[in-house]
Amino acid sequence: MLANDFESFREWIFDHHEIQAQLRSIHETEAFMAAVEQIAIDHGFQITRQHIEAALHAGRAAWLQRWMWW
Amino acid sequence: MAAEVDVVVDISRLEGWVPIRIYPQGPELMVDWCYLGDETFIDPFFSITIESLLQEPFHVLFRQQTPIGVLEELYLSHPGMNPTGLIFHMTKCGSTAITQAFASVGNLVLSEAEPLEMLLNRGPMTPNISDEQLVSWLRWMVSALGQRRTGAEKHYFIKFNAFPITRLPMLQRAFPKVPWIFVYRDPIEVLASLDELPGCMMRGAIRPDAVGMDAASFSNMSQDEYLVRLLAHYCKCGLRWHGSCGRLVNFRELPNAIWTSIAKHFNVEFTGEELVAMQRRLSFNAKRPQEKYSDDSESKRRMGAPRWRELATKWIEPVYEQLEAARTSLP
User: Fold this and answer.
1) Minimal Cα distance from B119: which residue of A?
2) 3-state DSSP assignment of residue B166
3) Do the Cβ atoms of B58 and A60 come within 8 Å?
4) Is B246 helix (H, G, I), strand (E, B) or coil?
5) Are the Cβ atoms of B2 and A65 closer than 8 angstroms?
6) Count of alpha carbons within 13 Å of B250, Cβ hemisphere only?
7) Interval A2-30 mean pLDDT
8) B35/A55 touch (CB, cutoff 8 Å), yes or no
């Protein structure tokens, strides 16, 4: 349920360019995760720091393993 | 494989985003998109630009994934630039210098862009993907990657890794009138460079049947023989197909050929200012822009000859001589 909420949140982010720009301006990972968590809470999404960390890990791994898929 | 994120988006969300990789998800091929904004592909390689973006947490966490079919919608509604010229090479022979010269004067330049390389490398080997489908995907992907970033780009050049010269007929089906070049170099110099940095030329990185080798001889040959025969195969492909929109370019012709014969072949002209800018860029190393450029051909020949002469004489020098004969017979 919570993971689905995270995907809903990500979808929501893609429709909000100003928030994207705000998040792009944060370069430090801890501060970025805190900002993401706060934005999610402010807009009614139930996501946790663990979801964000897991999604960051998956995003990095997907790129690093890009040639291992076919 | 890492868990993929099953998010489907519409194209209105993709403005400023670029495809960075493709991957299968069940029976479907997906595209992974990263926000590029008005950044340009000025780095020596596409992957350097993307790696740099992915140092930022936003680009790691917020990437969009779409079915590859979304590329067609984008192609129809937001067609990118048409490619001006395609650049193929045997590896370690100056092709990056050509792209860096073009990029230094504001052109859109892709250098070994992963999504295209993936389509060309793996596509034809994958069951249930027809050549027609692959040709369409190539057109759509080139269009998606060819969106103007600054608005000032005049030309769009695409440099591939060494392997895609073997896929030239497919690329010509996708882009039948686009001129291309094949860059090559004295094989001993190339082999000496590969001694320092073998890259993806290790045996096993490419399926042997994709580069004209049968499984039996492949399993019996040494890594050195494999390498020489692989380079020879790339050169044979350049030689075989150069008559159709192609031009052969020897490393020795660089850099002058960039603003003379190559520019003419690609039907582009450079201003005096652009010429100065390109020459300034090429006074530095193409792949390590912080270092001054120095011609290492002689030292490479001296270093490479003892190890490589015998294999080179047997497998690749005859092809090199044919390339030279074909090149020097051209106007």
Assistant:
1) A70
2) helix
3) no
4) strand
5) yes
6) 16
7) 90
8) no
